[in-house]
Every structure is written in structure tokens, then in C-alpha cells.
Design brief:
Two copies of one chain form a homodimer.
Chain A lengths: L8 H9 L8 E14 L5 H15 L8 E5 L8 E5 L1
Antiparallel strand pairs in A: 1-3, 2-3
Subcellular location (chains A, B): Cytoplasm
Subunit structure (chains A, B): Part of the FGAM synthase complex composed of 1 PurL, 1 PurQ and 2 PurS subunits.
Pathway (chains A, B): Purine metabolism; IMP biosynthesis via de novo pathway; 5-amino-1-(5-phospho-D-ribosyl)imidazole from N(2)-formyl-N(1)-(5-phospho-D-ribosyl)glycinamide: step 1/2
Chain lengths: 86, 86
């Protein structure tokens, strides 16, 4: 997601459109990116650290964006799912 | 996120670049959008249903995209935070 101090024209456009579309009471909208990575093998601390580094280096532009890494178990598959939002 | 059966060229481009950048063992990358909505008042079932409808109608293109709605408490502010990912 864009850092709070960075202007987000896409999010603002959505927010301004909402009352017109019948949706009141939404005080802020921010738009960002989301990556789902599927990993081979277990999502242990080492794998997670690597994904964090990857997110920081290549997926997010940390000058203007924050990111969080979240693990999601992927039921029905061997590979676990990992979600990075930038 | 794009539905699993929909081709995701952005995610594929990221995935193909990773080994070159020194990241092995990532079997799939999908890229999608993420919206953070801030709501006035409590995030009760009614508010959540409204946000789901909003996501389905305006934020996501449900022909090609799935979405999930997740509630995030926003510590330090009165308004609770709501995350929609498309």
C-alpha cells in the first residue's frame, strides 16, 4: 500500500464516487497491490525472511510504499500460500 | 485477485524474473489489487454486507476476479479499517 503520507488519486477517485453510487459512511479508500506467492516446501522463518527481503527489494517501492507479509495455508495443496501486499 | 483460470501476465513476469534475481523455490506468483476502506461507525454485519456488495459491484470485476473482505482493527483511531482485496 502507498504510505499514508503519499497521495493516492485512484483511491480518492473511488471514494468520491461512492456517495453517488449509494454508499455512505466510507471515510477513506486506499488502493494498492497484492501479490500471492506459492512456495515450494515449508514456510519456515528462513523462507519468510527471504520473502520479506524479496518484497522489500523487488515487489514494493519502499520509498513510497509499505508492505506486509502474511501466510495463508493453502488447503488441498502441498505448497503453502504466502501473501505479500505492497 | 484474478481467478485461477485467468492468465496473469504480470504475475508470470515476476515469477520468471525471480530465479535470475536469486530467489528459488517460488512456484507461483499472482498479482492483484487491494483496497483499504475506512468506515464510519462500527463494522457490524450490516456494514460488512454493504462492503461486500460494494466490492462485488464496483471494486472487483467478478467475471475475471475473486475477492475477499477482511476486517482489520485500526488501533489508535476510532474508525475501524476494512480491507477488500479484488
Amino acid at each position: 500500500m502507498l504510505k499514508p503520507e503519499i497521495l493516492d488519486p485512484q483511491g480518492q477517485a473511488v471514494q468520491r464516487a461512492l456517495p453517488r453510487l449509494g454508499y455512505q459512511g466510507i471515510t477513506d479508500v486506499r488502493q494498492g497491490k497484492r501479490f500471492e506467492l506459492e512456495l515450494e516446501g515449508p514456510v519456515d522463518d528462513a523462507a519468510l525472511a527471504r520473502v520479506r527481503q524479496l518484497a522489500e527489494t523487488f515487489l514494493a517501492n519502499t520509498v513510497i510504499e509499505d508492505f506486509t507479509v502474511r501466510v495463508e495455508e493453502n488447503a488441498g495443496e502441498n505448497a503453502e500460500n504466502e501473501v505479500v501486499t505492497a
